[in-house]
Amino acid sequence: MQANDTLARVRVWDPLVRLFHWALVLCIALNLFVLEDGAAGHRWTGYLATSLIVLRIVWGFVGSRHARFADFWPTRPRLLAHWQRMKTGEPDPHPGHNPAGALMMLALMALVFGLGLSGYMMGTDAFWGEEWLENTHELIANSLMALAGVHILAALLMSHIEGINLPRAMVTGVKAYRRKRP
Ligand code: HEM
Ligand code: HEM
Predict the structure, then answer these.
(1) Distance between CA 36 and CA 43 in Å, rounded?
(2) Atom 39 in ligand 1: which residue has the minimum CA distance?
(3) Of all atoms in ligand 1, which is nearest to the CA of residue 49?
């Protein structure tokens, strides 16, 4: 930060969004790297992650301003405008999610929901022992890992381009923008 810059602080993420994000990360990390595949702990942690998704969908309609889907839903015009700005090398900061980040968010949430659904189906009489379902569950888990990797890299890259520490904002709820002093 230059000596003649000022910092504008904007409160963007409410406590529920932040709790949702880090609880979801914890559940997924536990299921991918710590808990035994398919054991009771794995199943309950997976259902907790799935419930967080359902809660977040509800919050997307009734939550605070930047938590609402209407604030960031990645429509075609929004995505194109964001892409044009990025191509010209201009930063395109949004107080809430940018359209590309929003698309990633929806994809990550859909994958977690798919894990909950396929995990539940594996335990039913109708699908017990079905290998294709186990393979599907594994494929979704691997896709989630890959997309989460892209998501993390994108968060770090956009933090660098826009000069805003986005992961810190997901902890504190506040985005700090650099502004040139007039
Ligand atoms: C965050 C959500 C979840 C993640 C990241 C996840 C991830 C995984 C992974 C990586 C495996 C190992 C796949 C393999 O190599 O065969 C697995 C297996 C399994 N998961 Fe999940 N899972 C989740 C949710 C659930 C839920 C909600 C259930 C059921 C209620 C469930 C039931 C199972 C079962 C029964 C297996 C063993 C399948 C087999 O025998 O191959 N999972 N899960
Ligand atoms: C399993 C791993 C992860 C998953 C599934 C995940 C999922 C998500 C989701 C669903 C959102 C949208 C939040 C909301 O509006 O409710 C989000 C936002 C965000 N995540 Fe993650 N996340 C993961 C890991 C991480 C990690 C490790 C970081 C830290 C580097 C991170 C940084 C962020 C940031 C900065 C945002 C907000 C982006 C913005 O300002 O628009 N995420 N993530």
Answers:
(1) 10
(2) 134
(3) 1
Give the other-Cβ count within 10 Å of 126's Cβ.
7
Q: Is the pTM of this model over 0.90?
A: yes
Per-residue pLDDT of the chain (182 residues; tens, 9 = 90+): 455 566 778 899 999 999 999 999 999 999 999 999 999 999 999 999 999 999 999 999 999 999 999 999 999 999 999 999 888 877 777 889 999 999 999 999 999 999 999 999 999 999 999 999 999 999 999 999 999 999 999 999 999 988 899 999 999 999 987 766 55
d(CA 173, CA 133): 39
Whose C-alpha lies nearest to ligand 2, atom 29?
167
The CA-based angle 121-106-127, given to 5 degrees, is: 10
Cα–ligand 2 centroid distance for 151 (angstroms): 7
Q: At what angle do helices 99-122 and 76-87 cross, to 10 degrees?
A: 120
Domain edges within the chain: 15-143
